[in-house]
Amino acid sequence: MPKTSVLKHLSAVNKYFWKYRYRFIAGIFFVMASNYFAVLAPQVTGYIISQVQMHLPGGKPAGTKQVHDVLVENFVNRVENSQISFASLIVLCSVVILLLALIRGLLMFFMRQTIIVMSRHIEYDQKNEVFEHYQKLDLGFYKTHATGDLMNRITEDVSRVRMYVGPAIMYFINLASTIGFCVYYMVKQDAELTLYVLLPLPILTITIYIVNNIIHKKSEKVQKLLSELTTNAQESYSGIRVIKSFVQEKAMLGFFKTNSEAYRKNAVDLAKVEAIFFPSMSLMIGLSTLITILIGGREVLNGTLDVSIIVEFVIYINMLTFPVSALGWTASIIQRAAASQKRLNEFLDTEPAIKDKPLHATETGFINGDIVLQNVSFTYEHTGIKALNHFSLTIKQGQKVLILGRTGSGKSTLAQLLLRFFDPDEGYISVGGKKLPDIPLQVLRESITYIPQDVFLFSDTVGGNISFGLAKKAVAEDIYKAANYAGIDNE
Question: Alpha-carbon distance 104 to 342, whole Å?
């Protein structure tokens, strides 16, 4: 996937970065601060090596002057002015290195407490956003989209996006700051040697770019197959009574195995491609270390470079090992997140076919009056079945009407049109002289008691299911009264 496409899909989560900007900015600060203290340790180590060289038999001062950060330079000046013993110097430098490690560890703790915690907040917000949008979509949407796919998008896809806004962002900033600090001090120390050491990196960049494109294509396919697998499982669980009644367990297992095998095969292929990253990183880091030792060693023999600088460079290269190796993993996460966010955007950008009228304070309460269906026609878009054809009916206020008809004659369609789950293709429906599109959905549906023919219970108590259709703060008396009306109070 081109870089612009990745950024285009992931730009949908930028609003969350702004919402949690203070955590995000603090996280960036902690990442950079932790890496700053990390690059001071090699300089202190280099200083120790140079001092060891001087105190060896026949030792002499370093051939080249070491370049230090201002903090390390102040430390070196204080140590040299204090004229402490060599043994005390080694102990003091060891303590300083340990202290730098502790400071870095503390900063890394705060780094995770800001960026990773921020990603959990974003995951929470995004799941709520997706779920809220699902509830706004019309019934026609749910007739054309599998439940398993909807579930997969709000779980797996949102989780993969969280990996981007959390770990991927954190490791990318860590990579950028580590490379920035290391390369800066390496160039200040020896620009020519730095150039040789960094030669393998362009090759690494090209490798990552090529493999990333392959990963993205495979990630999209894997996510699609996972949605199909989830749908297969969800439908099997929901229809288990039908499956058992017709003794179709073996057939359903066969369907599941087929989908599962397709998912397994593609997931393994994706894992094989991702496996190219880590050996590539190790190879490039190994080459950089080898170049440092070969070229640096030659200059040491020529007397133009000090051994302490080679030691410092090798430590810098090893510091780059994890961030650079994490580059492939981070790129993979970003590619997967882009594929997942693209799937989420498809739904989040879907507008409900039923446009709701804004609810004003004066419009609260129930509606009443005559119900008029005038020349109503309706065709189910996803099947092409024409359920109603120029149907007209007037129901006077207080009048009871029974509508009979064979299966598929449009009885349920009439109820769904009255609740405005759909809008008619032709004609109109009005209640109390107002056409349904002019009535806010909340007012319309709160004014109608609808008992669907599909049996459905929420994963809740019996009382919870009964009170679902009652007032928000239904008391026990209300629940028992409703149970009595339904004739289940003695069950």
Answer: 37
**Size (the chain), residues:** 491
pLDDT at position 105 is 92
Q: Is 392 left (phi over 0), alpha (psi -120 to 50) or beta?
A: beta
Cβ contacts of 412 within 8 Å, gap of 6 or more: 453
CA–CA distance, 87 with 284 (Å, rounded to integer) = 38
Per-residue pLDDT at 403 exceeds 70: yes
Q: With H, G, I as helix, E, B as strand and everything else as coil, classify residue 408.
A: coil
Tokens of 473: 């703060």
Give CA–CA dist 155/58, Å, rounded. Answer: 68
Helix-helix angle 249-274:200-238, to 10 degrees: 170
Q: Dihedrals φ, ψ of 435, to 5°? A: -70, 150
Dist CA 22 CA 33 (whole Å)? 16
Q: What is the CA radius of gyration of the chain?
A: 34
What does the alpha-carbon distance between residue 156 and residue 340 come to, in Å, rounded to a whole number? Answer: 8
Q: What's the mean pLDDT when you consider all of the chain?
A: 83
Q: Do the Cβ atoms of 32 and 67 come closer than 8 Å?
A: no
| Alpha carbon distance 472, 468 (integer Å) | 8
Query: What is the rounded distance in angstroms from the CA atom of residue 284 to the CA atom of residue 445?
Result: 65
Higher pLDDT, 118 or 308: 118
Longest C-alpha distance within the chain, in Å? 114
The helix (H) or strand (E) run that includes residue 451 is none
Instruction: Return phi, psi of residue 198, to 5°.
Output: -90, 0
Phi/psi-derived region of residue 247, left when phi > 0, alpha when psi is between -120 and 50, beta in every other case: left
- The answer to whether the beta carbons of residues 23 and 115 sit under 8 Å apart is yes
C-alpha to C-alpha distance for 359 and 466, rounded to whole angstroms: 27
